[in-house]
Amino acid sequence: MTSPITSAISSSPVTRRELMQSRTPVALLKQILAFPGVTTPAALIAMVLLWEAAARLLSIPTYLLPPPSAILGSFSSIGFERWVGHIGATLRVALIGYAISIVIAIPLAVVMMRSPFLSRTLYPLLVVVQSTPVVAIAPIIIVVLGAGDAPRIVITCLITFFPLVVSTATGLAATPPELIELSRSLRASGFREITQIRLPFAVPYIFSALKISITLAVIGAVVAEFCASEAGVGYFIQLSTSLFKLPQAWAGLLVLAAMSLLLFQAVVMTQKLLFPWSLPKNG
Amino acid sequence: MAMPAIHFDRLGQVFETRSGRTEALRDVSFDVARHEFVSILGPSGCGKSTLLRMIAGLLKPTSGSVEVFGLPVTAPRDDIGIVFQKPTLLPWATVEDNVVFPARHKTGRVTVEERERAGELLKMVGLSGFEKRLPDELSGGMQQRVGIARALLMDPDILLMDEPFSALDALTREVMGFDLLRIFSERPKTVVFITHSVSEAALLSDRVLVMTGRPGSILTEVTVRVGRPRGPETAKDKTIHDLSDYLRDLLLTRHAA
Protein backbone atom coordinates (compact mmCIF):
# COMPACT_ATOMS: atom_id res chain seq x y z
CA MET A 1 0.00 0.00 0.00
CA THR A 2 1.32 3.42 -0.92
CA SER A 3 1.38 6.10 1.70
CA PRO A 4 -0.06 9.56 0.95
CA ILE A 5 3.47 10.94 0.88
CA THR A 6 4.75 8.59 -1.81
CA SER A 7 1.71 9.21 -3.97
CA ALA A 8 2.22 12.96 -3.66
CA ILE A 9 5.79 12.62 -4.88
CA SER A 10 4.89 10.33 -7.80
CA SER A 11 4.92 12.06 -11.15
CA SER A 12 1.36 11.25 -12.17
CA PRO A 13 -0.23 14.55 -13.37
CA VAL A 14 -3.52 13.71 -11.72
CA THR A 15 -2.04 13.38 -8.27
CA ARG A 16 -0.01 16.51 -8.75
CA ARG A 17 -3.08 18.49 -9.68
CA GLU A 18 -4.93 16.99 -6.77
CA LEU A 19 -2.10 18.03 -4.53
CA MET A 20 -2.26 21.61 -5.77
CA GLN A 21 -5.99 21.78 -5.30
CA SER A 22 -5.80 20.33 -1.88
CA ARG A 23 -3.44 23.07 -0.67
CA THR A 24 -3.92 26.80 -0.26
CA PRO A 25 -1.37 28.95 -2.16
CA VAL A 26 0.31 29.83 1.13
CA ALA A 27 0.70 26.16 2.04
CA LEU A 28 2.07 25.46 -1.43
CA LEU A 29 4.62 28.25 -1.09
CA LYS A 30 5.66 26.87 2.28
CA GLN A 31 6.10 23.47 0.71
CA ILE A 32 8.31 24.84 -2.07
CA LEU A 33 10.40 26.82 0.39
CA ALA A 34 10.90 23.71 2.47
CA PHE A 35 13.14 22.27 -0.26
CA PRO A 36 16.80 22.69 0.57
CA GLY A 37 18.68 25.13 -1.66
CA VAL A 38 15.57 27.03 -2.61
CA THR A 39 15.41 29.77 0.00
CA THR A 40 18.75 31.45 -0.74
CA PRO A 41 18.25 31.85 -4.51
CA ALA A 42 14.65 32.87 -3.86
CA ALA A 43 15.73 35.56 -1.42
CA LEU A 44 18.37 36.74 -3.87
CA ILE A 45 15.91 36.98 -6.76
CA ALA A 46 13.43 38.80 -4.54
CA MET A 47 16.13 41.28 -3.52
CA VAL A 48 17.21 41.93 -7.12
CA LEU A 49 13.60 42.46 -8.20
CA LEU A 50 13.00 44.82 -5.30
CA TRP A 51 16.18 46.70 -6.17
CA GLU A 52 15.17 47.00 -9.84
CA ALA A 53 11.70 48.20 -8.88
CA ALA A 54 13.03 50.69 -6.35
CA ALA A 55 15.61 52.08 -8.77
CA ARG A 56 12.97 52.61 -11.45
CA LEU A 57 10.00 53.75 -9.37
CA LEU A 58 11.96 56.10 -7.11
CA SER A 59 14.13 57.25 -10.07
CA ILE A 60 17.36 56.89 -8.10
CA PRO A 61 20.24 58.33 -10.17
CA THR A 62 22.38 55.51 -11.66
CA TYR A 63 25.57 56.94 -10.13
CA LEU A 64 24.03 56.34 -6.70
CA LEU A 65 22.38 52.98 -7.25
CA PRO A 66 22.21 51.60 -10.78
CA PRO A 67 19.36 49.15 -11.41
CA PRO A 68 20.41 45.50 -11.92
CA SER A 69 19.37 45.73 -15.57
CA ALA A 70 21.90 48.52 -16.14
CA ILE A 71 24.61 46.50 -14.43
CA LEU A 72 23.84 43.52 -16.63
CA GLY A 73 23.89 45.78 -19.66
CA SER A 74 27.37 47.03 -18.85
CA PHE A 75 28.67 43.46 -18.94
CA SER A 76 28.10 43.31 -22.65
CA SER A 77 29.08 46.94 -23.34
CA ILE A 78 32.58 46.35 -21.96
CA GLY A 79 33.32 43.52 -24.36
CA PHE A 80 34.58 40.04 -23.78
CA GLU A 81 38.26 40.69 -24.47
CA ARG A 82 38.56 43.51 -21.98
CA TRP A 83 36.90 41.35 -19.32
CA VAL A 84 39.29 38.49 -20.02
CA GLY A 85 42.22 40.91 -19.77
CA HIS A 86 41.14 42.33 -16.41
CA ILE A 87 40.11 38.99 -14.93
CA GLY A 88 43.33 37.38 -16.15
CA ALA A 89 45.46 40.11 -14.54
CA THR A 90 43.75 39.79 -11.16
CA LEU A 91 43.69 36.00 -11.29
CA ARG A 92 47.40 35.85 -12.18
CA VAL A 93 48.44 38.01 -9.22
CA ALA A 94 46.08 36.26 -6.79
CA LEU A 95 47.14 32.74 -7.79
CA ILE A 96 50.89 33.40 -7.98
CA GLY A 97 50.80 35.14 -4.59
CA TYR A 98 48.70 32.32 -3.14
CA ALA A 99 51.05 29.66 -4.49
CA ILE A 100 54.18 31.41 -3.19
CA SER A 101 52.48 31.85 0.15
CA ILE A 102 51.73 28.12 0.38
CA VAL A 103 55.23 27.14 -0.69
CA ILE A 104 56.75 29.32 2.05
CA ALA A 105 54.14 28.90 4.80
CA ILE A 106 54.00 25.10 5.01
CA PRO A 107 57.77 24.48 5.28
CA LEU A 108 58.02 27.41 7.69
CA ALA A 109 55.33 25.84 9.89
CA VAL A 110 57.29 22.56 9.83
CA VAL A 111 60.50 24.36 10.82
CA MET A 112 58.70 26.23 13.59
CA MET A 113 57.20 22.98 14.88
CA ARG A 114 60.65 21.33 14.95
CA SER A 115 62.39 24.25 16.61
CA PRO A 116 60.80 25.88 19.65
CA PHE A 117 63.54 28.53 19.43
CA LEU A 118 62.57 29.58 15.90
CA SER A 119 58.91 29.38 16.84
CA ARG A 120 59.41 31.75 19.80
CA THR A 121 61.44 34.12 17.63
CA LEU A 122 59.30 34.16 14.50
CA TYR A 123 55.79 33.94 15.88
CA PRO A 124 55.69 37.47 17.36
CA LEU A 125 57.08 38.82 14.08
CA LEU A 126 54.34 37.05 12.15
CA VAL A 127 51.75 38.56 14.47
CA VAL A 128 53.22 42.02 13.87
CA VAL A 129 53.04 41.53 10.10
CA GLN A 130 49.49 40.24 10.37
CA SER A 131 48.44 43.15 12.61
CA THR A 132 49.66 45.76 10.14
CA PRO A 133 46.80 46.60 7.76
CA VAL A 134 47.77 45.43 4.28
CA VAL A 135 45.93 48.39 2.79
CA ALA A 136 48.34 50.66 4.65
CA ILE A 137 51.55 48.89 3.61
CA ALA A 138 50.46 48.37 0.01
CA PRO A 139 51.41 51.87 -1.27
CA ILE A 140 54.80 51.62 0.45
CA ILE A 141 55.52 48.22 -1.11
CA ILE A 142 54.56 49.54 -4.52
CA VAL A 143 56.93 52.49 -4.16
CA VAL A 144 59.73 50.18 -3.03
CA LEU A 145 59.24 47.42 -5.62
CA GLY A 146 58.11 49.58 -8.51
CA ALA A 147 55.66 48.75 -11.27
CA GLY A 148 54.85 45.28 -12.47
CA ASP A 149 53.46 42.17 -10.83
CA ALA A 150 56.14 41.86 -8.13
CA PRO A 151 54.69 44.34 -5.57
CA ARG A 152 51.17 43.01 -6.16
CA ILE A 153 52.30 39.44 -5.59
CA VAL A 154 54.11 40.47 -2.40
CA ILE A 155 50.95 42.17 -1.11
CA THR A 156 48.92 39.03 -1.89
CA CYS A 157 51.50 36.90 -0.07
CA LEU A 158 51.40 39.15 2.98
CA ILE A 159 47.64 38.86 3.34
CA THR A 160 47.41 35.09 2.74
CA PHE A 161 50.49 34.02 4.68
CA PHE A 162 49.46 34.22 8.33
CA PRO A 163 46.41 31.91 8.34
CA LEU A 164 48.42 29.29 6.44
CA VAL A 165 51.37 29.28 8.85
CA VAL A 166 49.27 29.31 12.00
CA SER A 167 46.82 26.68 10.83
CA THR A 168 49.53 24.35 9.48
CA ALA A 169 51.52 24.68 12.71
CA THR A 170 48.39 23.87 14.73
CA GLY A 171 47.70 20.84 12.55
CA LEU A 172 51.27 19.55 12.81
CA ALA A 173 51.01 19.73 16.59
CA ALA A 174 47.58 18.04 16.66
CA THR A 175 48.95 14.63 15.70
CA PRO A 176 48.02 11.90 18.22
CA PRO A 177 51.00 11.51 20.59
CA GLU A 178 50.72 7.72 20.30
CA LEU A 179 51.70 7.86 16.64
CA ILE A 180 54.72 9.98 17.47
CA GLU A 181 55.68 7.35 20.06
CA LEU A 182 55.16 4.65 17.45
CA SER A 183 57.43 6.61 15.12
CA ARG A 184 60.09 6.96 17.81
CA SER A 185 59.82 3.29 18.76
CA LEU A 186 60.54 2.43 15.12
CA ARG A 187 63.50 4.85 15.18
CA ALA A 188 62.13 6.42 12.01
CA SER A 189 63.74 9.59 10.68
CA GLY A 190 62.31 12.98 11.59
CA PHE A 191 61.67 13.51 7.89
CA ARG A 192 59.35 10.49 7.75
CA GLU A 193 57.66 11.56 10.95
CA ILE A 194 56.79 14.82 9.19
CA THR A 195 55.83 13.41 5.79
CA GLN A 196 54.07 10.21 6.85
CA ILE A 197 52.39 11.29 10.08
CA ARG A 198 52.38 14.99 10.91
CA LEU A 199 51.69 16.55 7.51
CA PRO A 200 48.84 14.18 6.57
CA PHE A 201 47.29 14.77 10.01
CA ALA A 202 47.56 18.52 9.35
CA VAL A 203 45.67 18.25 6.03
CA PRO A 204 42.25 19.26 7.46
CA TYR A 205 43.88 22.25 9.19
CA ILE A 206 45.82 23.21 6.07
CA PHE A 207 42.68 23.08 3.96
CA SER A 208 40.68 25.28 6.29
CA ALA A 209 43.49 27.83 5.94
CA LEU A 210 43.64 27.31 2.17
CA LYS A 211 39.94 28.16 1.98
CA ILE A 212 40.37 31.37 3.97
CA SER A 213 43.52 32.33 2.10
CA ILE A 214 42.14 31.91 -1.42
CA THR A 215 39.50 34.58 -0.79
CA LEU A 216 42.14 36.75 0.92
CA ALA A 217 44.34 36.32 -2.17
CA VAL A 218 41.68 37.97 -4.32
CA ILE A 219 41.40 40.79 -1.78
CA GLY A 220 45.18 41.21 -1.79
CA ALA A 221 45.31 41.41 -5.57
CA VAL A 222 42.51 44.00 -5.64
CA VAL A 223 44.11 46.12 -2.92
CA ALA A 224 47.33 46.13 -4.93
CA GLU A 225 45.44 47.15 -8.07
CA PHE A 226 43.76 50.00 -6.20
CA CYS A 227 47.18 51.44 -5.37
CA ALA A 228 48.85 51.26 -8.73
CA SER A 229 47.90 49.30 -11.78
CA GLU A 230 46.79 49.52 -15.36
CA ALA A 231 44.93 46.20 -15.51
CA GLY A 232 42.85 43.97 -13.32
CA VAL A 233 39.28 43.93 -12.02
CA GLY A 234 40.22 46.14 -9.05
CA TYR A 235 41.76 48.68 -11.39
CA PHE A 236 38.65 48.46 -13.59
CA ILE A 237 36.36 49.20 -10.63
CA GLN A 238 38.46 52.18 -9.59
CA LEU A 239 38.57 53.54 -13.12
CA SER A 240 34.82 53.10 -13.56
CA THR A 241 33.96 54.90 -10.32
CA SER A 242 36.30 57.77 -11.14
CA LEU A 243 34.40 58.15 -14.45
CA PHE A 244 31.06 57.85 -12.60
CA LYS A 245 30.28 54.72 -14.60
CA LEU A 246 28.68 53.03 -11.61
CA PRO A 247 26.95 50.19 -13.46
CA GLN A 248 30.40 49.13 -14.73
CA ALA A 249 31.85 49.30 -11.23
CA TRP A 250 29.03 47.11 -9.95
CA ALA A 251 29.62 44.66 -12.78
CA GLY A 252 33.27 44.53 -11.75
CA LEU A 253 32.25 43.87 -8.18
CA LEU A 254 30.04 40.98 -9.28
CA VAL A 255 32.91 39.54 -11.29
CA LEU A 256 35.17 39.71 -8.23
CA ALA A 257 32.58 38.02 -6.03
CA ALA A 258 32.07 35.29 -8.63
CA MET A 259 35.84 34.85 -8.92
CA SER A 260 36.26 34.46 -5.16
CA LEU A 261 33.39 32.00 -4.99
CA LEU A 262 34.72 29.88 -7.85
CA LEU A 263 38.24 29.83 -6.44
CA PHE A 264 36.88 28.88 -3.02
CA GLN A 265 34.84 26.07 -4.59
CA ALA A 266 37.94 24.91 -6.46
CA VAL A 267 39.77 24.52 -3.13
CA VAL A 268 36.78 22.68 -1.65
CA MET A 269 36.68 20.34 -4.66
CA THR A 270 40.43 19.71 -4.46
CA GLN A 271 40.03 18.61 -0.87
CA LYS A 272 37.06 16.40 -1.77
CA LEU A 273 38.92 14.74 -4.63
CA LEU A 274 42.39 14.33 -3.13
CA PHE A 275 41.71 14.03 0.61
CA PRO A 276 38.15 12.78 1.06
CA TRP A 277 39.06 11.31 4.47
CA SER A 278 39.95 14.77 5.78
CA LEU A 279 36.39 16.09 5.45
CA PRO A 280 34.31 16.38 8.62
CA LYS A 281 31.95 13.44 9.04
CA ASN A 282 28.25 14.07 8.74
CA GLY A 283 26.21 12.88 11.68
CA MET B 1 67.06 -20.08 35.30
CA ALA B 2 66.84 -18.84 31.75
CA MET B 3 67.49 -15.20 31.02
CA PRO B 4 64.33 -13.15 31.54
CA ALA B 5 62.89 -11.26 28.59
CA ILE B 6 62.44 -8.15 30.67
CA HIS B 7 64.30 -7.34 33.86
CA PHE B 8 63.55 -4.35 36.08
CA ASP B 9 66.13 -3.62 38.72
CA ARG B 10 65.24 -1.13 41.50
CA LEU B 11 63.86 1.18 38.92
CA GLY B 12 62.79 4.72 39.79
CA GLN B 13 61.35 7.52 37.74
CA VAL B 14 61.09 11.14 38.77
CA PHE B 15 59.55 13.78 36.55
CA GLU B 16 60.72 17.34 36.94
CA THR B 17 57.89 19.63 35.97
CA ARG B 18 57.29 23.33 36.34
CA SER B 19 55.04 22.68 39.31
CA GLY B 20 57.71 20.61 41.00
CA ARG B 21 59.04 17.12 41.31
CA THR B 22 56.80 14.10 40.82
CA GLU B 23 58.04 10.70 41.82
CA ALA B 24 56.20 8.37 39.45
CA LEU B 25 57.90 5.07 40.27
CA ARG B 26 59.98 3.90 43.21
CA ASP B 27 62.12 0.81 43.56
CA VAL B 28 60.35 -1.35 41.01
CA SER B 29 61.96 -4.74 40.51
CA PHE B 30 60.46 -7.65 38.57
CA ASP B 31 61.20 -10.04 35.76
CA VAL B 32 59.11 -11.20 32.86
CA ALA B 33 60.07 -14.56 31.38
CA ARG B 34 60.08 -15.17 27.65
CA HIS B 35 56.56 -15.87 26.34
CA GLU B 36 55.04 -15.02 29.69
CA PHE B 37 51.86 -12.94 29.85
CA VAL B 38 52.11 -10.46 32.71
CA SER B 39 49.35 -8.02 33.59
CA ILE B 40 49.90 -4.88 35.60
CA LEU B 41 46.99 -3.69 37.71
CA GLY B 42 46.93 -0.51 39.72
CA PRO B 43 45.21 2.77 40.40
CA SER B 44 45.26 5.54 37.78
CA GLY B 45 48.46 7.52 37.74
CA CYS B 46 50.58 4.85 39.39
CA GLY B 47 53.07 4.91 36.56
CA LYS B 48 51.95 1.80 34.68
CA SER B 49 52.25 3.47 31.29
CA THR B 50 55.60 4.91 32.35
CA LEU B 51 56.83 1.35 32.89
CA LEU B 52 55.82 0.41 29.35
CA ARG B 53 57.52 3.47 27.92
CA MET B 54 60.73 2.49 29.65
CA ILE B 55 60.62 -1.06 28.26
CA ALA B 56 60.01 0.43 24.82
CA GLY B 57 63.07 2.66 25.21
CA LEU B 58 60.99 5.81 24.85
CA LEU B 59 61.87 7.00 28.34
CA LYS B 60 65.03 6.63 30.41
CA PRO B 61 64.75 5.65 34.09
CA THR B 62 66.02 8.18 36.62
CA SER B 63 67.47 5.41 38.75
CA GLY B 64 67.85 1.65 38.47
CA SER B 65 67.77 -0.11 35.13
CA VAL B 66 65.63 -1.94 32.60
CA GLU B 67 67.09 -4.81 30.65
CA VAL B 68 65.55 -6.54 27.67
CA PHE B 69 67.08 -9.93 26.87
CA GLY B 70 70.03 -9.12 29.09
CA LEU B 71 70.87 -5.78 27.52
CA PRO B 72 70.16 -2.41 29.13
CA VAL B 73 67.53 -0.48 27.20
CA THR B 74 69.14 2.67 25.79
CA ALA B 75 67.04 3.19 22.67
CA PRO B 76 63.91 1.73 21.09
CA ARG B 77 64.39 -1.84 19.90
CA ASP B 78 63.10 -3.63 16.83
CA ASP B 79 61.70 -6.61 18.72
CA ILE B 80 59.05 -4.69 20.67
CA GLY B 81 55.53 -3.94 19.48
CA ILE B 82 53.15 -1.50 21.13
CA VAL B 83 49.35 -1.49 21.26
CA PHE B 84 47.92 1.77 22.55
CA GLN B 85 44.79 2.53 24.51
CA LYS B 86 43.23 4.12 21.43
CA PRO B 87 43.76 2.38 18.08
CA THR B 88 45.32 5.60 16.63
CA LEU B 89 45.22 4.41 13.05
CA LEU B 90 46.01 6.62 10.08
CA PRO B 91 42.59 7.81 8.90
CA TRP B 92 43.73 8.19 5.27
CA ALA B 93 45.21 4.71 4.95
CA THR B 94 43.36 1.45 4.29
CA VAL B 95 43.33 -1.25 6.95
CA GLU B 96 46.10 -3.09 5.10
CA ASP B 97 48.22 0.05 4.73
CA ASN B 98 47.78 0.72 8.43
CA VAL B 99 49.09 -2.75 9.27
CA VAL B 100 52.15 -2.36 7.03
CA PHE B 101 52.72 1.21 8.23
CA PRO B 102 55.57 0.31 10.64
CA ALA B 103 57.54 -1.15 7.71
CA ARG B 104 56.87 1.83 5.48
CA HIS B 105 57.67 4.24 8.27
CA LYS B 106 60.91 2.54 9.22
CA THR B 107 62.34 1.73 5.81
CA GLY B 108 60.35 3.87 3.42
CA ARG B 109 59.00 0.89 1.49
CA VAL B 110 56.87 -2.21 1.94
CA THR B 111 57.98 -5.58 0.64
CA VAL B 112 55.71 -8.23 -0.86
CA GLU B 113 56.41 -10.45 2.15
CA GLU B 114 55.28 -7.72 4.51
CA ARG B 115 52.04 -7.32 2.57
CA GLU B 116 51.44 -11.05 2.72
CA ARG B 117 52.19 -10.99 6.43
CA ALA B 118 49.70 -8.19 6.92
CA GLY B 119 47.10 -10.33 5.16
CA GLU B 120 47.83 -13.26 7.48
CA LEU B 121 47.72 -11.06 10.57
CA LEU B 122 44.40 -9.54 9.50
CA LYS B 123 43.05 -13.04 9.02
CA MET B 124 44.31 -13.94 12.50
CA VAL B 125 42.58 -10.97 14.12
CA GLY B 126 39.40 -11.79 12.18
CA LEU B 127 39.45 -8.96 9.63
CA SER B 128 39.79 -10.87 6.35
CA GLY B 129 37.95 -8.99 3.63
CA PHE B 130 38.41 -5.62 5.32
CA GLU B 131 41.87 -4.96 3.83
CA LYS B 132 40.78 -2.10 1.60
CA ARG B 133 38.44 -0.42 4.07
CA LEU B 134 39.27 2.83 5.81
CA PRO B 135 39.53 2.86 9.64
CA ASP B 136 36.51 5.11 9.72
CA GLU B 137 34.31 2.35 8.35
CA LEU B 138 35.22 -0.03 11.19
CA SER B 139 33.85 -0.35 14.72
CA GLY B 140 36.03 0.50 17.72
CA GLY B 141 36.77 -3.17 18.36
CA MET B 142 37.74 -3.77 14.74
CA GLN B 143 39.99 -0.72 14.78
CA GLN B 144 41.79 -2.04 17.84
CA ARG B 145 42.22 -5.39 16.05
CA VAL B 146 43.98 -3.47 13.27
CA GLY B 147 46.13 -1.87 15.98
CA ILE B 148 47.08 -5.32 17.27
CA ALA B 149 47.89 -6.57 13.77
CA ARG B 150 50.04 -3.45 13.23
CA ALA B 151 51.96 -4.15 16.44
CA LEU B 152 52.58 -7.74 15.31
CA LEU B 153 53.80 -6.88 11.79
CA MET B 154 57.51 -6.87 12.62
CA ASP B 155 56.97 -10.14 14.57
CA PRO B 156 58.21 -8.64 17.83
CA ASP B 157 59.16 -10.91 20.65
CA ILE B 158 57.70 -8.53 23.20
CA LEU B 159 54.29 -6.93 22.96
CA LEU B 160 53.42 -3.99 25.18
CA MET B 161 49.70 -3.37 25.57
CA ASP B 162 48.59 -0.18 27.31
CA GLU B 163 44.95 -0.69 28.36
CA PRO B 164 44.14 -1.81 24.82
CA PHE B 165 40.48 -2.63 25.48
CA SER B 166 39.52 0.16 27.85
CA ALA B 167 37.74 2.16 25.15
CA LEU B 168 35.54 -0.78 24.12
CA ASP B 169 32.11 -1.82 25.35
CA ALA B 170 31.94 -4.68 27.86
CA LEU B 171 30.91 -7.40 25.42
CA THR B 172 33.43 -6.47 22.72
CA ARG B 173 36.05 -6.29 25.42
CA GLU B 174 35.33 -9.85 26.52
CA VAL B 175 35.43 -11.16 22.94
CA MET B 176 38.73 -9.35 22.35
CA GLY B 177 40.16 -11.04 25.45
CA PHE B 178 39.30 -14.50 24.12
CA ASP B 179 40.75 -13.55 20.74
CA LEU B 180 44.00 -12.51 22.41
CA LEU B 181 44.18 -15.90 24.13
CA ARG B 182 43.79 -17.61 20.75
CA ILE B 183 46.30 -15.32 19.01
CA PHE B 184 48.99 -15.87 21.64
CA SER B 185 48.43 -19.62 21.68
CA GLU B 186 49.12 -19.56 17.92
CA ARG B 187 52.07 -17.18 18.22
CA PRO B 188 53.51 -17.08 21.71
CA LYS B 189 54.72 -13.61 22.74
CA THR B 190 56.12 -12.01 25.82
CA VAL B 191 53.29 -9.69 26.80
CA VAL B 192 53.12 -6.87 29.31
CA PHE B 193 49.48 -5.94 29.56
CA ILE B 194 48.21 -2.92 31.45
CA THR B 195 44.58 -3.00 32.49
CA HIS B 196 42.09 -1.76 35.03
CA SER B 197 39.95 -4.87 34.74
CA VAL B 198 40.69 -7.52 37.38
CA SER B 199 38.78 -10.26 35.54
CA GLU B 200 40.64 -9.48 32.30
CA ALA B 201 43.96 -9.65 34.14
CA ALA B 202 43.05 -12.96 35.79
CA LEU B 203 41.75 -14.58 32.61
CA LEU B 204 44.62 -13.57 30.31
CA SER B 205 47.73 -13.62 32.50
CA ASP B 206 50.28 -16.05 33.75
CA ARG B 207 51.09 -13.55 36.46
CA VAL B 208 49.43 -10.39 37.74
CA LEU B 209 51.44 -7.56 39.30
CA VAL B 210 49.51 -5.19 41.54
CA MET B 211 50.92 -1.70 41.92
CA THR B 212 50.43 0.92 44.62
CA GLY B 213 49.49 4.52 43.97
CA ARG B 214 52.05 7.28 43.42
CA PRO B 215 54.92 6.73 43.74
CA GLY B 216 54.15 3.46 42.01
CA SER B 217 55.79 0.32 43.28
CA ILE B 218 54.93 -3.36 43.18
CA LEU B 219 52.53 -4.17 46.01
CA THR B 220 52.21 -7.86 45.30
CA GLU B 221 52.31 -10.40 42.53
CA VAL B 222 49.97 -13.29 41.97
CA THR B 223 50.56 -16.30 39.75
CA VAL B 224 47.47 -17.50 37.89
CA ARG B 225 47.45 -21.26 38.34
CA VAL B 226 45.18 -22.09 35.45
CA GLY B 227 46.46 -24.11 32.52
CA ARG B 228 46.44 -23.17 28.86
CA PRO B 229 44.91 -23.14 26.33
CA ARG B 230 42.29 -20.92 27.91
CA GLY B 231 39.05 -19.81 26.34
CA PRO B 232 35.46 -18.77 27.11
CA GLU B 233 35.15 -21.80 29.42
CA THR B 234 38.10 -20.58 31.48
CA ALA B 235 36.20 -17.41 32.26
CA LYS B 236 33.79 -19.54 34.32
CA ASP B 237 36.64 -21.26 36.17
CA LYS B 238 36.42 -20.96 39.96
CA THR B 239 40.14 -20.21 40.31
CA ILE B 240 39.77 -17.24 37.94
CA HIS B 241 36.73 -15.99 39.89
CA ASP B 242 38.41 -16.31 43.25
CA LEU B 243 41.49 -14.60 41.94
CA SER B 244 39.40 -11.74 40.48
CA ASP B 245 37.67 -11.30 43.84
CA TYR B 246 40.98 -11.31 45.66
CA LEU B 247 42.48 -8.72 43.29
CA ARG B 248 39.36 -6.56 43.47
CA ASP B 249 39.40 -6.56 47.28
CA LEU B 250 43.07 -5.73 47.24
CA LEU B 251 42.58 -2.75 44.92
CA LEU B 252 39.48 -1.52 46.76
CA THR B 253 41.17 -1.56 50.18
CA ARG B 254 44.15 0.26 48.75
CA HIS B 255 41.87 2.68 46.98
CA ALA B 256 39.89 3.43 50.15
CA ALA B 257 43.07 3.91 52.19
Describe the structure.
- The complex is a heterodimer of chains A (283) and B (257).
- With 283 residues, chain A is mainly alpha-helical.
- Chain A folds into 2 domains: 4-66, no CATH class; 72-278, MetI-like (MetI-like fold, Orthogonal Bundle), CATH 1.10.3720.10.
- Chain A contains 13 helices and no strands.
- Chain A has helices at residues 4-9, 13-22, 25-33, 39-57, 68-78, 80-114, 116-131, 134-145, 149-173, 177-185, 190-227, 233-242, 246-274.
- In chain A, helix 6 runs antiparallel to helix 7.
- Chain A is flat.
- Chain B has 257 residues and is α/β, with parallel strands linked by helices.
- Chain B folds into 2 domains: 6-79 and 158-256, P-loop containing nucleotide triphosphate hydrolases (Rossmann fold, 3-Layer(aba) Sandwich); 88-155.
- Chain B is 35% helix and 25% strand.
- Chain B is built from 8 helices and 10 strands.
- Chain B has helices at 48-55, 95-99, 101-107, 112-124, 140-152, 170-186, 198-204, 238-256; strands at residues 6-17, 20-32, 37-41, 63-68, 71-72, 80-83, 158-162, 190-194, 207-211, 218-223.
- In chain B, the strands form 2 sheets. Chain B has a 6-stranded mixed beta sheet with strand order 6-7-8-3-9-10, sandwiched between helices. A 4-stranded antiparallel beta sheet of chain B has the order 2-1-4-5.
- The longest helix of chain B is centred in the C-terminal third of the chain and has 19 residues, at 238-256.
- Chain B is globular, with a radius of gyration of 18 Å.
- Chain A binds chain B through residues 176, 178-179, 181-188, 192, 196-197, 200, 203, 275, 277-278, 281, and chain B through 53, 56-58, 75-76, 80, 82, 84-86, 88, 90-92, 101-102, 104-106, 108, 134, 136.
Keyphrases for this structure?
heterodimer, A: 283 residues, mainly alpha, MetI-like fold, 81% helix, flat, B: 257 residues, alpha/beta, Rossmann fold, six-stranded mixed sheet, four-stranded antiparallel sheet, 8 helices, 10 strands, 25% strand, globular
